[in-house]
Amino acid sequence: METEKGKTVKIMKEKRQVSPQVTENLKQYTRIKKNILEALKDEELTVNQLTEKLNLPKAETLYYLMSLIKYGFVQVGSVDDMDEYFTYKIKK
Amino acid sequence: MSDKMAFDALVIGGGIAGGESALNLANNGYKVLIVEKELSIGGKMILLSKVFPTLDCAACITTPKISEIARHPLITIYNGSEVLHVNKIAENNFKAKIRKNPRYVIQEDCTGCQLCEQACPVNVPDQYQFNLVGRKAAFIPFNIASPRVAAIDIENCTLCGACERACPTKCIDFSQVPEEFEISIKTVIIATGFDLFDPLKIPRYSYEKSYNVITSMQMERLLAPTRPFHTILRPGDGKMPDKIAYVLCTGSRDTSVGNPICSQICCMYSIKQAQLLMGALPMADITIYYINIRSFGKGFEEFYEQAKGMGVTFVKGKIGKITEIEKGNLQLRYEDINEGVVKEAEHDMVVLSVGVLPNQGVSKMFTEQELKTDPYNFVYQPDLLISPSKTSIDGVFVSGTASGPMDIPDSILSAGAASTEAISYLNSVCP
After folding, report:
1. Residues 230..249 of B with a Cβ closer than 8 Å to A: which?
2. Which residue of B has its CA nearest to A75?
3. CATH superfamily membership of B196-356
């Protein structure tokens, strides 16, 4: 089949379907990303504080937070007096 | 068969041993094909933080080497590919069937700009960061990957087309399909490396039950310059750890998990990591629980003594159980071997120094002849003392950890031996 460069995704769409798990994963990530960015809008928060606000397990909060740092949405704030937990804030 | 499909040597595996063997062959004028299952060459070494006992940066050593391999005019590399089978027709005459899996990116056109990555809406665990952080479905495997070219993880792709729209060179190509083809070669080098022990096989160590129990490879990533977090943090809650324990011989020297042999590298990489941690977290207490410290190589004993001098605590003890207690901390119940009593200790993070296991798929590639393996399923070396690279098939040589656990210098030496024996074979058989 002749394909136009830059418009090949339709070929794949004809060949395979996106699994419900992939769609669910995308929805979950989008929702958590939105919630994290919303929570950090007004103040810097630690993982523990974010966990309370988002009602997520701490490990999951950290995973998504670190992913958002990697993608350039969030940056590291400061560390607490005990040198234990960092705060995180929106990257401006 | 066209010249394009004919090579002097097939190197199976593009890690540091396979790469070194390929480079030696190519520098001697032989045409080499490297088949690597991952999206980048460099194997496990490229993912390490530093190397022992010199504490040289692993990436700084690996990157120039893989760059030399990738740019060599006599070396062809198939990433994301697999050898389906190899058949020896006669001396100096092998046929191999290769499957090249689609990357869904036109490699030559990709500039590595990462705009596809930015556009991709998906987030899935990054296997090159050992699932500590996410990555996109359109992604560059890691910063120092070779080739530094994007790939599409089709299993996790939502087929939204955002990557295609964002790509300035229009190199995303969803029309790619797996290709299978036959090649002709004169000799084969097996450099399939090793697998790491899966600590889930020891449920009493609480791996994945407690997020603050991690593997040594995850700690390597936490210590590497291209780390998943901004500093060393507990994956369970983002706390900077200050009491870290290492559990040596996790999955090595343990008949209960089917691996009675020593993995040879765990003692030293744990000591290396302990030293690096003391540099990164100066206030941290590091304790290494060991059965025996095997510091057998050049400079290893001094390296061990150096760690002790820096304040790393060594406890001759066998771990019975790791239990999560309050605040994500971990209680280690262990037998103090010197005192002969059971003790308990609390740490806030535990690193399991996982052992080396054979990569078992390789012998199945040889369909007509038998590639023998040793009792531990590593590639059998019938003439270990005189010709350590020889295998049970003439013309097939083994390089690096495919033949057994070894450290990086020994892998490089083994790779040199394999290429030398392969050249000798080519010269003795070729007119």
Report:
1. 230-231, 233, 235-240, 242
2. B230
3. FAD/NAD(P)-binding domain (3.50.50.60)
Reported in sequence order, the residue ranges of B216-328 that DSSP labels E, i.e. its strands, are 243-250, 285-290, 313-324
Best B122, B174, B234, B243 member to test A by mutation, with max A CBs in 10 Å, is B174
In a domain, A5, yes or no: no
What does each of the 92 residues of chain A score in pLDDT, given as a tens digit?
Answer: 567 887 899 999 999 999 999 999 999 999 999 999 999 999 999 999 999 999 999 999 999 999 999 999 999 999 999 889 999 999 98
Alpha carbon distance B353, B355 (integer Å): 7
Q: Alpha-carbon dihedral of residues B412, B413, B415, B421, nearest 10 degrees?
A: 170
A83 touches chain B (CB under 8 A): yes
pLDDT digits (tens, 9 = 90+) for B135-171: 999 999 999 999 999 999 999 999 999 999 999 999 9
Written as six digits, the tokens of B22 are 């390929």
- Burial class, B255, CB count within 10 angstroms (exposed 0-12 / middle 13-18 / buried 19+): exposed
Of A30, A58, A61, which is closest to B121 when you measure between CB atoms? A30
**Is B283 touching A (CB cutoff 8 A)?**
yes
Residue A9 lies in a domain: no
Nearest-Cα residue of chain B relative to residue A12:
B174
> Interhelix angle for A47-54 vs A20-39, to 10°?
120
Q: Which CATH architecture has domain B3-101+179-193+359-429?
A: 3-Layer(bba) Sandwich (3.50)
Q: Determine which of A28, A78, A84 to mutate to test the interface with B (most B C-beta atoms within 10 Å).
A: A84
Helix or strand (DSSP H, E) at A79: strand A74-79
Residue range(s) in chain B whose domain bears CATH number 3.50.50.60? 3-101+179-193+359-429, 196-356
Q: Does the beta-carbon distance from B159 to A18 stay under 8 Å? A: yes
- Residue B159 region, left (φ>0) first, then alpha (ψ -120 to 50), else beta? left
Is the CB of A9 less than 8 angstroms away from the CB of B174? yes
Reading the block at residue B386, the tokens are 């005189």
Of B122, B159, B228, Cβ closest to residue A9: B159
- What's the domain range around A44? 18-90
In terms of Cα–Cα distance, which of B318, B167, B320, B160 is closest to A22?
B160
> How far is the C-alpha of B144 from the C-alpha of A9, rounded, in Å?
28
Domains in chain A: how many in total? 1
